[in-house]
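Hi again,

Forgot to attach this to my earlier email, sorry! This is the prediction with uridine-diphosphate-N-acetylglucosamine bound. I've pasted everything inline since the attachment limit keeps bouncing my files.
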Amino acid sequence: MGAADMTQQSGRIWVMGGRPLNGTAAIPAAKNSVLPLLAAALLCRGPVRLRAVPRLSDVECSLGLLRGAGCAAYWQGADIVVAGMPSNSTLPGETAAQMRASILFCAPLLARLGRAETSLPGGCNIGARPIDLHLEGLARMGAKELDAVAGKLVLAAPGGLHGADITLRFPSVGATETLLLAAVCARGTTVLRGAAREPEISDLTEFLNRCGGRIEGRRGLSGCDFSPLPDRIFASTLACAVAAAGGRVELTGCPPALYAPVLEILEQMGCTVERGADRAEVARFGRLYGAGRVFTGVYPGLATDAAPLLAAAMLCAEGESSIEDVIFERRFGCAEGFERLGGRVKRAGRVLSVGPLPESGLHGAALTAPDLRGGAALVVAALSARGKSLVEETRHID
Ligand code: UD1
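Structure tokens for the complex follow:
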């Protein structure tokens, strides 16, 4: 992608903004699919190959967890290969604490070794993010939580996991993944009601089925060669960047249906979107209008991860917008950075109200990334701002 000037150094991103974006970007595999797929590799006897995986810090962290569990896990070009069965039920503590998705590695260890120990998950500070739904579901399948020191989680299922009829009171993506991973190797059939239906869940079930599991219950899995689905949030990020900074960008390798709500809102705001089977071209040359009131939801609603990114585009509109995240209570940690750039925003609980772009536009500023999507939203807003911005503490964006 051309025109804008961005430099990245460890922990910092400099942005020279105020210039339109032009070019083509290939959308990489989805982080939120790759992480559960790497956890699923713990269930497989044969080698697993995941094709064309982006080198993100959470992916490296997952490789650390797999190695800690006793598997071989390594890069082969852009692919990841995982081989060998887990032999150690204790996940490396420091690595596990870095990433919320480390909880996903527990169910496979329980299924394989009858025990799992991890540090309680860290990750982005966007809300409470409890793991009660994971634990309640696993308990229904025969897992017990053992006493452990603070910050640790130890689960045991000495008699093995068994199928159960489980209803989730909220369609949590992570809990659905945990329970799928547990169920696929449990004795008997599991019925999961109220499950999440995000595309990343379908990717995981497809992977498990390809490895010889039936999601109605079964024992050991073989490995397989798998291309994880494209990253709809990454595509949303670039689409919002074009809306904010202007220009025309083609996003390839990702069906626009996966991020349809984002594209539709951007069209309402004055962008043009041309859709193909697995590409979209997003353009904005004229003015941007306010979006009115927008809400996130579970799939196929507007993704919570896209909320701060859309908010960054809303900053550049002539009219008013408001966006409410119904999933996480602290989604808009980027609000302070938006203000530093000159944006008119007001945060009240889960709602971010965005006023019209000031006549002088946005200007470069020194910013701190509050979390992954909030940090990306600051980069997007900085691309539309005149002059130079510096975004610090970008480890979540990495
Ligand atoms: C995943 C995604 C994240 C995305 C989110 C919602 C990964 C690695 N991350 O996160 O990018 O924003 O889905 O689409 O895939 N909850 C509970 N108890 C639980 C689990 C969740 O109350 O045991 C609540 C959470 O506090 C939150 C809501 O459920 O309010 C959604 O969380 P969940 O769907 O589990 O998100 P994650 O799997 O953490």
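Residues 32, 35, 100-101, 127-134, 170, 172-175, 200, 304-305, 327-328 surround uridine-diphosphate-N-acetylglucosamine (CB under 6 Å). The chain has a mean pLDDT of 94.

That should be everything now.

G.
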